[in-house]
Amino acid sequence: MSFKPISDIGEFGLIRHIEKLVSPTLDHAPGIVQGIGDDCAVLETSPSTLQVSTTDLLVEHVHFDLLTTPLHHLGSKAVSVNISDICAMNARPLYALVSIALPEKASVELVETLYRGMSETAGLYETAIVGGDTSASKGGIVISVTVVGEVGKEKLTLRKGAAPGDLVCVSGSLGGAAAGLRVLMRERDIMLEHLRHGETFDGDVMNTLAEYSEAIKRQILPSARTDIVAFLEKKNVVPTAMIDISDGLAADLLHLCARSGTGARIEEGRIPVLPQARHIADEFQEDAVNYALGGGEDYQLLFTLDNARFGDIAEHPDISVIGKIVPEEEGVRMADIYGMTVDLEATGGFDHFRGRE
Amino acid sequence: MSFKPISDIGEFGLIRHIEKLVSPTLDHAPGIVQGIGDDCAVLETSPSTLQVSTTDLLVEHVHFDLLTTPLHHLGSKAVSVNISDICAMNARPLYALVSIALPEKASVELVETLYRGMSETAGLYETAIVGGDTSASKGGIVISVTVVGEVGKEKLTLRKGAAPGDLVCVSGSLGGAAAGLRVLMRERDIMLEHLRHGETFDGDVMNTLAEYSEAIKRQILPSARTDIVAFLEKKNVVPTAMIDISDGLAADLLHLCARSGTGARIEEGRIPVLPQARHIADEFQEDAVNYALGGGEDYQLLFTLDNARFGDIAEHPDISVIGKIVPEEEGVRMADIYGMTVDLEATGGFDHFRGRE
């Protein structure tokens, strides 16, 4: 008997496979609105309210490296990335469960710093940490966070729902997280080189890298855009579709279009790139737009909007319209600044099991 | 600066510490009934219904060993142990989220077998698997399962609530899981010995160990007692306090009494020990009652009941009354079969960070 390595089907192939394996259990959830395949699962828990829930694993040496990630920030990020999934449903977070596996060498102080980061960040989003689990680990640290939230039935926003003619909008600026990671990886290599030669380094990454601090902050201390969800609520605007940008603008726009059965046409010149990401890209002789398209982890919201509602969001200083939804057969494409058309399906996003696709 | 190892405070000390660190976030959960400290967190989600939620991490080489645990059973157990926590609140499960971290060498077939086990078991408990996360792992396999359930307000049963005079009841029989583990660990050592000498073994643990099959099943394929919760519902009996036996009868009775502010007096002769656990204990020249008291992982329900309700549960063939609740100052004790009194606080349960206490 021969076994197929997971890299043969990739992360998204694996998820589709798992979706099929667990689908028979959905018969037991009469109120299910959405299972695997969106940012959150959605269930009807009362006549007017839907419950949304999401979970994320953060694995040491895969998602983070303690050499470049302060523990306090790690705790904060673990919470924020889940709250971001809640935001992507146009929902508000209610409570979180947090589990942690700790290697034998972990100290009480490590746990304190980590949980302080989680607790402070959960507080910012008015989310209670109500339970969890602790375990030993024979490998590195593993953190599992689950967040449950709620949304009014008429406000729920899925990845599907976009229609040709809708505007493609994005919150904040992109590319910062990837640029920050680029700098941190270089710094890590320098630190390891110092360590190899028995030299010391002060280890305070944030101070020695002050000129890159905004990009690094985007990487190690991202924010979930609960403020955008609150703004949409205030304006009584319900996006037609929404996703948070965790895999990169290209991959997440592809996810949204695939679920909606549409194409999209965006313009490179309209993509809001973090200015510091451009400086960093210049330094590495790379293109900052690629950080935005393929870098991921920006945790901004990508949503589509009925064209007629543009007036309601136009005043917001932190929402950019970057293109529009087109019929599926026109593909998912970007007009670059020279007017050339780039097929975004050829760039793709990040895949844990295959590296860059 | 010196760091305190977690083994200094132990698993329960760590949990109390974490409880303190996250407690400021509870201000954001106005409907919270119970945070960390019971089998589930409990929140008010509607005027008549409470939501309960629980999460568990299963870590390779800490909680399971693929040499002795068939993957299908591992998936099943990951689901059952969480459903058992839901049962311990006298609640019924609604839905589950499942995350998994997989080492590079993991195959698609491994994932299939694991998720089939989870899916089939979730189906048995009428629980939908609605979402999750996948990740690479640089160590072994890590599985995180979260289950959300519900219970009518008047049915909720916590660890606290037992009062002197209440009966101490336990479902099913105990000691099987520990006895099964004892056999599996011996078998594992033999297998490793074979492997070291380049010999083959057929690897089908269940077939070669037929005479121990019931105990092994209790270890690798435990059931959650949703049937007991349904029976209590049918009889309109609400226990005064309840916990599931995951750490061992002694430790879990201590947890229940600590939260209730009571003592307890149980009788060794009334503890329902799995007959096969007695045979295995004889073989190892050990005492099967110690498997029941200190072994853990039996996932039976331990609950207390107003004495006046005894008639309602007396007919059930699988519920044993093993003693009664006494005032706190009388301690948590067991009368052994010779009439001697054993202080259960001296035996304790299993602690992941310190080994046996």
List keywords for this structure.
homodimer; 60s Ribosomal Protein L30, Chain: A; Phosphoribosyl-aminoimidazole Synthetase, Chain A, domain 2; 2 domains; 6-stranded mixed sheet; 11 helices; globular
Distance between the termini of chain A: 28 Å
CATH topology label of the largest domain in chain A: Phosphoribosyl-aminoimidazole Synthetase, Chain A, domain 2
Count helical runs of chain A.
11
Return the domain count of chain A. Answer: 2
What kind of sheet is the major sheet of chain A? 7 strands, mixed
Task: Provide the spatial order of strands within the biggest beta sheet of chain A.
Answer: 8-10-7-11-9-12-13
Spans of chain A of 5+ residues with little confidence (pLDDT < 50)? Answer: none
Please report the two chains with the greatest interface, counting residues with C-beta closer than 8 angstroms to the partner's C-beta: A-B, 83 and 83 residues
Mean pLDDT of chain A: 91
Number of strands of chain A: 15
The run of helices and strands of chain A is: HEEEHEHEEEHHHHEHEHHEHEEEEE
Rg of chain A (CA only): 21 Å
Report on the structure:
Two copies of one chain form a homodimer. Chain A contains eleven helices and 15 strands. In chain A, the strands form three sheets. Chain A has a seven-stranded mixed sheet with strand order 8-10-7-11-9-12-13, with helices on both faces. Chain A has a six-stranded mixed sheet with strand order 1-2-3-6-4-5, with helices on one face. A two-stranded antiparallel ribbon of chain A has the order 14-15. In chain A, 34% of the residues lie in helices and 25% in strands. The first copy, chain A, has 357 residues and is α+β, with helices and mostly antiparallel strands. Chain A has two domains: 6-152, 60s Ribosomal Protein L30, Chain: A (2-Layer Sandwich); 167-182 and 214-356, Alpha-Beta Complex (Phosphoribosyl-aminoimidazole Synthetase, Chain A, domain 2). Chain A has helices at residues 10-22, 71-87, 108-124, 176-196, 205-208, 213-220, 226-234, 249-260, 275-283, 288-295, 310-314, and strands at 32-34, 41-44, 49-59, 92-103, 128-137, 142-152, 167-171, 241-244, 262-267, 301-305, 319-327, 332-335, 341-343, 350-351, 355-356. In chain A, strand 4, helix 3 (108-124) and strand 5 (128-137) form a beta-alpha-beta unit. The radius of gyration of chain A is 21 Å and the shape is globular. The interface between A and B is large, with 83 and 83 residues.
